[in-house]
């Protein structure tokens, strides 16, 4: 019940990205390359101002599970406020420094004019992404997963229509090309932001007013930081590592960059349902954990993982069988097609590794064990995800295939680390002990044992 609206929302977001890629491919493959690397940059920066939203979301679900609704409301407000302030700062930076940013990303000189347009236009409105993410996170963690889904439907419809009008100059509109994609993105996001803000104000029993955004609770803010900053570092590490990998691809040339962008679009569909299940499970595990039902929370993580792996593997098998035909819808360039098809078999290993990492990682996040994930992410992503990608992909000359192999190794190592951490049950045992202690119940080691079995 929690997962299907999340799935539909993410599916529609993925569809929006696909429509962007498909329409932009009608401009040129160079334009696709610019959109691909720019979106990696936007994703990296978005994590910076959604850190508070992620930490607040977990705490909201825990407070809802323990029936502390007033604290959940305050946490939601502070998460949105922090995302707004940081988002404005990031948007101003992108708006005025698009040209030097393109140079830092190793974008070739002939692509820089396109990147300047896209980064300045879309980046200038990036604060809306942070607000949309924080509002949606707060709403979903109260248990309302349908509201963001309905918003996603409307945003997609508006975006597709505006893309068609602005890119191709239909119905008397100016033919703006890549700038049209940027304008369409900003308008559709603004509509989604307004809808989510209205829902957010009514998400709790006491309606949220504008004056409430001035509320600041030091104790709750410290709790958000305790969970949120490691979560933010973890997310930032992943996105920034992907951004660096994209800069490696830029060194390999626009063919490799476009092939990765096209394949990334197709991979998103394979992973969407698995990710939705993992995200729904995170909400439920946080509710269970907040309500003291630690054993149920422990078992739920494994059930989620099995369902997610089955779904992802089934989807990846379909992509492997029909991937060449689907890639042909985006481009007819023989070099890009050959690169994309060569990666389809490798994806049969990459996506299950991602599911393992995502499923168990979300479970750890739900109970607040985010610092462990941060440490493993920093080590694995820097050494394997980035370091080995450069060694094998660039220095050794393995190219895009070498980089993909390193991506698999990184996801698998991190997935196994979080799986072992979950099986150790350190945080769950500590929570159970704290819950039993006030009642005078003997703790493990004093004649009683606490057991969590799969």
From TrEMBL:
Localisation per UniProt entry: Cell membrane
CDD domains named in the record: MATE_like_8
Keywords: Cell membrane, Membrane, Transmembrane, Transmembrane helix, Transport
GO MF term list: antiporter activity; xenobiotic transmembrane transporter activity
Keyword Nucleotide-binding in annotation: no
Pfam families noted in UniProt: MatE (PF01554)
Chain coiled-coil ranges: none
Main location: membrane
Residues spanning the membrane: 41-62, 74-98, 118-139, 151-171, 177-200, 227-249, 269-288, 300-322, 334-351, 372-395, 401-420
The keyword Transport appears for this protein: yes
Membrane topology qualifier: Multi-pass membrane protein
A single Gene Ontology CC term: plasma membrane
Record NCBIfam families: matE
Annotated protein name in UniProt: MATE family efflux transporter
């Amino acid at each position: 019940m929690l997962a299907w609206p999340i799935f539909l929302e993410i599916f529609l977001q993925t569809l929006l990205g696909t429509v962007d890629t498909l329409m932009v491919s009608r401009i040129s493959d160079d334009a696709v390359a610019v959109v691909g690397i720019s979106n990696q940059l936007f994703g990296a920066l978005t994590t910076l101002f959604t850190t508070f939203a992620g930490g607040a979301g977990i705490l909201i679900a825990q407070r809802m599970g323990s029936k502390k609704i007033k604290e959940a409301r305050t946490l939601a407000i502070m998460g949105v406020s922090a995302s707004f302030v940081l988002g404005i700062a990031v948007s101003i930076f992108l708006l005025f420094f698009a040209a030097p940013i393109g140079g830092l990303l190793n974008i070739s000189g002939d692509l820089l004019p396109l990147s300047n347009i896209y980064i300045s236009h879309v980046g200038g409105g990036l604060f809306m992404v942070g607000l949309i993410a924080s509002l949606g996170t707060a709403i979903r963690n109260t248990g309302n997963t349908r509201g963001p889904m309905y918003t996603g439907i409307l945003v997609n419809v508006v975006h597709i229509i505006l893309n068609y009008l602005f890119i191709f100059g239909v119905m008397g509109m100016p033919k703006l090309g890549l700038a049209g994609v940027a304008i369409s993105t900003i308008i559709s996001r603004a509509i989604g932001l307004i809808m989510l803000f209205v829902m957010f104000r009514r998400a709790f029993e006491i309606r949220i007013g504008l004056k409430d955004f001035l509320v600041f609770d030091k104790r709750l803010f410290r709790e958000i930081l305790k969970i949120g900053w490691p979560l933010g570092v973890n997310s930032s590490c992943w996105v920034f590592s992907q951004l660096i990998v994209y800069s490696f691809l830029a060194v390999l040339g626009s063919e490799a960059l476009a092939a990765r962008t096209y394949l990334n679009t197709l991979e998103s569909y394979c992973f969407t349902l698995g990710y939705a299940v993992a995200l729904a499970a995170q909400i439920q595990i946080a509710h269970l954990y907040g309500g003291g039902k630690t054993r149920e929370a422990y078992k739920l993580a494994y059930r989620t993982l099995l369902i997610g792996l089955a779904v992802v593997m089934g989807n990846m098998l379909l992509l492997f069988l029909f991937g060449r035909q689907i890639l042909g819808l985006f481009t007819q360039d023989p070099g890009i097609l050959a690169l994309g098809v060569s990666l389809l078999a490798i994806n049969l290993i990459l996506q299950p590794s991602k599911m393992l990492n995502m499923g168990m990682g979300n479970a750890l996040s739900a109970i607040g064990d985010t610092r462990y994930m941060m440490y493993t992410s920093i080590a694995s992503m820097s050494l394997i995800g980035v370091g080995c990608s450069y060694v094998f992909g660039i220095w050794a000359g393995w190219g895009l295939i070498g980089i993909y192999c390193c991506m698999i190794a990184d996801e698998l190592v991190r997935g196994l680390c979080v799986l072992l951490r979950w099986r150790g049950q350190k945080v769950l045992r500590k929570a159970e002990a704290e819950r039993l202690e006030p009642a005078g119940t003997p703790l493990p080691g004093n004649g009683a044992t606490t057991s969590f079995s799969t």
